[in-house]
Specification:
Strand content: over 45%
Number of helices: 1
Structural class: mainly beta
Distance between the termini: 50 Å
Largest sheet: 21 strands, parallel
Shape: elongated
Helix content: under 10%
Length: 415
């Protein structure tokens, strides 16, 4: 696709004047040429496409075999072979061969071969064979074979084969294979293969291998990760040597997955599912606290597991639960949250691995409840969560926020 795109753009802009690379030593060299309006109104006459100039000045549209030092055009510069030095145009530059130096244009730069240096334009830069240096544009950069350096675009950057360096775009970055590189965009980054050091985006990242970090507003997808994955919603990877952090983190090969049933002084039944990795896993839980039959709790948190011996471990977890009413006849909805009534807990759970992948845990908890306790605020009567309190304070605000602290105990069975 990248070769087709490059060929079409060059063909449209330059027609038959831009062809494949040739040995320009066989061409005639002249120190200077001037094109008055457009070819053949040039000091080089009708043979201008076969002449390489040290300096080239084109009032509107100019055609040359190549440039060795400087070319300036009011509208469009077209060079059939190579450009060495600086090329500037009010609208666009088109080169059939290599550019060694810099291209600057108000709208586009298009090259059939490699760029060694800089391309800067208001809309699009295209290098058919690749870029060693920098591409900067307001809309799209394309390096057909690869990029060794940097691309910066307002919309999209494409490195067709390899990326060794940096891509920064307002919308999306795409690289066929990353040797070592960084991708930063407003929407998405895609690295088809290789080793990506960092991907940062507002929505999604995709990479084969990450040695560093993936940061996304919504989702990260990777093969092997050595480092961190952080997403607003979902992380997916084959394996990770590091930590994932998201609402959901799926690690296929060396992930941590655990179902558990627990009891405490607050809930006489709680079901939980934990997933992620041992170093950092997510907790999703649903439980039945003491009180009316329609009173439940839902919540979640984070945890880490530390191996103490071959069969013993310590799990440190932090969870937050909110009171939930299910099927209460006093409520208009089947699922109903009457008011803020939070049960927050930090747990230190010592565990033992039993046979058949079953583990038991028991340990102390430090708990804090936060509730809106104003009698006239909710539909239902306020039910306190703590069985007792070592700290109890109610703020004199509209909701009469009540905060209580206590030490508890939790036991669980997991598999």
């Amino acid at each position: 696709m990248k070769k087709i795109l490059t060929t079409l753009v060059i063909a449209v802009l330059a027609g038959p004047l831009v062809s494949a690379q040739h040995d320009t030593t066989a061409l005639e060299h002249r120190p200077f040429q001037f094109t008055f309006l457009f070819p053949p109104l040039s000091t080089n006459g009708p043979n201008n496409a076969n002449i390489v100039n040290d300096y080239s000045l084109n009032l509107l549209i100019g055609v040359s075999g190549g440039v060795d030092k400087l070319e300036v055009g009011g509208l469009i510069n077209i060079d059939a072979y190579n450009v060495n030095g600086l090329q500037m145009a009010g609208f666009g530059n088109t080169v059939g061969g290599d550019v060694t130096g810099a291209q600057v244009a108000g709208f586009f730069n298009v090259n059939g071969a490699r760029v060694r240096g800089f391309q800067g334009s208001g809309f699009v830069n295209v290098a058919g064979a690749g870029v060693t240096g920098l591409q900067g544009t307001g809309f799209v950069n394309v390096a057909g074979q690869g990029l060794r350096g940097a691309q910066a675009a307002g919309f999209i950057n494409v490195a067709g084969e390899t990326l060794e360096g940096f891509q920064g775009a307002g919308f999306m970055n795409i690289a066929g294979e990353v040797i070592k590189g960084v991708q930063v965009s407003g929407f998405g980054n895609v690295a088809g293969g290789g080793n990506t050091h960092f991907q940062g985006t507002g929505f999604f990242n995709v990479a084969e291998e990450v040695k560093g970090a993936q940061l996304a507003g919504f989702v990260n997808v990777a093969g092997k990760v050595e480092g961190v994955q952080v997403a607003g919603f979902l992380n997916i990877c084959d394996s990770i040597d590091g930590v994932p952090l998201a609402f959901i983190s799926v690690v296929k090969k060396n992930g941590y997955r655990n179902f558990g049933f627990s009891v405490s002084e607050v809930q006489y039944a709680n079901l939980s599912f934990k997933m992620g990795v041992k170093r950092l896993y997510n907790i999703y839980s649903f439980g039945k606290p003491f009180g009316p039959g329609s009173r439940w709790m839902f919540g979640g948190g984070l945890g880490t597991e530390i191996d103490l011996t071959e069969s013993m471990m310590l799990n440190i977890e932090g969870t937050v639960h909110q009171e939930l009413w299910i099927g209460n006849p006093a409520n208009a909805h089947f699922l109903y949250i009457d008011r803020l009534n939070l049960y927050n807990s930090v747990k230190f759970l010592f565990g033992w691995n039993m046979e058949n992948q079953v583990a038991i845990h028991i340990g102390p908890t430090l708990n804090v409840s936060v509730a809106n306790s104003n009698p006239g605020f909710g539909v239902l009567a306020w039910h306190e969560i703590p069985p007792y309190a070592i700290f109890n304070h109610t703020s004199n605000n509209f909701n009469q926020t009540n905060v209580q602290m206590w030490v508890g105990l939790q036991g669980s069975v997991s598999f």
